[in-house]
Amino acid sequence: MIPHGADHMTVQSYDISASLPNFVLLFADDLGYGDLGFSAHPTSLTPNLDRLAAHGLRFTDFYSTSPVCSPSRASLLTGRYQTRSGIYPGVLYPGSIGGLPLNETTIAEVLKPLGYATAMMGKWHLGYGANGTYLPTRQGFDHYLGIPYSHDMGPCHNLTCFPPDVKCYGFCDVGTVTVPLMDGETITQQPVDFIHLEDAYSNFATEFIRSATQKRQPFFLYYPSHHTHYPQFAGWKSVGRSLRGPFGDALLEFDSTVGNILKTLKETGVLNNTLVFFTADNGPELMRMSRGGNSGLLKCGKGTTYEGGMREPAIAYWSGVIKPGVTHSLSSTLDILPTIAKLAGAPLPKVQLDGVDMIDILFNHGTGQRKAMFYYPVDPSEKYGVFAVRLGKYKAHYYTRGAAHSDTTPDQDCHFISPLRYHDPPLLFDLESDPSENYSLNVKDHPDMISVLQNIKDLKDSFEASMQFGESEIGKGTDPDLAPCCNPQCSPKPECCRCETSL
């Protein structure tokens, strides 16, 4: 656990020439800007994340690069917009032919040449492919325990999500194999046992950290959680403990694993030499109503390029090194790879990066290097380009569109039936005074905004001219025979793909 009073510690300047730092990257799933205790949700129980926020540096203006899973994960691990790596449109599926190209360089691959131990547990969602071509173990991770795609991508209505025998909410996908659990490149369980899954992850993290520290080896642990994506699940230690129902119990389970990781870092004596970074992949799936998360004061959620779809909570914690506080500096998941590389003294990949390091923000609480953020829709294309641009405190929407993921809210702009609209002049919002995007600044009433819009347009034109779209990996299609099966020669599929072992 984070020691109380850590915010009173003297913050030392960090010396890269000293022992290599460790990195723990925590990545929540479908988590809204307003879902956590420290963001004022009245019934969320997140004591460990709340302490991270209190004793770390909390970001108010932090962004993912996509309002859905696979592309946002590609950008996080590579420091490049998903359009460059080809992880678009939409997300990868169990039988997807493509995946994150092997010539893309992940954070794990940046660190491994320096002697880092690397491990991942949780949701990969960057491809499985023929014979596991795109698994984390092919992308720089020494160890992997998890589900290779989203845990709703398989029949779930007959599975147990909460003890003792509460079935999973909803039906998820049908006609495909049940969700597998993988240890490295081996399927150890199919379907996965949701009740004991998080305990397995917690044990995995503890063993990895202890092993690395005993060997005096620097390490990188990546934990992209399944929480709080639908269908929510939780084990015995969390069920019924929150006031928020199943969603709150799932969130508490994620928070408990975070607490176990922090406890292990402290017990092994490496807490003061470890950067812990927390954020999430995209906004809440509002179509699930109270089971889908909350974007707080932000507009809409998952699937949209409004703030609720791509603006995420984020925290950087490094005991005794990063001074606690709050930063309003513009930052992104794109910036995590360059930051980690700088701290480890690792060379950057020799490709076009879209991320910049956050060193000035982390250690000086400065303004940082990022001046702008570009918002791509779920289905980016060269024809339409970016849907919106944020420059400083201003955001211009060139296109807006609703999404099924954000249905059921009172705001009709969020809904799937809200069509693609082109705006000329763009809708312009001051996100510092109006983070909910309620009041567009009309240039007739605000003539001083003409120059702001011109600056944004110039930046947009320059960025789009430099963007080279990679071949769409998702556009390569799917092959049902590629879906992971623990008994690949069995018949009939998908029903025969079962191997039930205890975690």
From TrEMBL:
It is found in: Endoplasmic reticulum; Lysosome. Its EC number is 3.1.6.8. It is an enzyme of class 3 (hydrolase). One of its GO terms (molecular function) is cerebroside-sulfatase activity. Residues 21-346 form the Sulfatase N-terminal domain. One of its GO terms (biological process) is lipid metabolic process. Gene3D superfamilies: 3.30.1120.10, Alkaline Phosphatase, subunit A. The keyword Signal applies. Keywords: Calcium, Disulfide bond, Endoplasmic reticulum, Glycoprotein, Hydrolase, Lipid metabolism, Lysosome, Metal-binding, Signal. Its cofactor is Ca(2+). GO terms for cellular component: endoplasmic reticulum; lysosome. Pfam families: Sulfatase, Sulfatase_C. It catalyses: an N-acyl-1-beta-D-(3-O-sulfo)-galactosyl-sphing-4-enine + H2O = a beta-D-galactosyl-(1<->1')-N-acylsphing-4-enine + sulfate + H(+). The keyword Magnesium does not apply. Belongs to the sulfatase family. Hydrolyzes cerebroside sulfate. Homodimer at neutral pH and homooctamer at acidic pH. Exists both as a single chain of 58 kDa (component A) or as a chain of 50 kDa (component B) linked by disulfide bond(s) to a 7 kDa chain (component C). Interacts with SUMF1. This is Arylsulfatase A. The lineage of its organism: Eukaryota, Metazoa, Chordata, Craniata, Vertebrata.
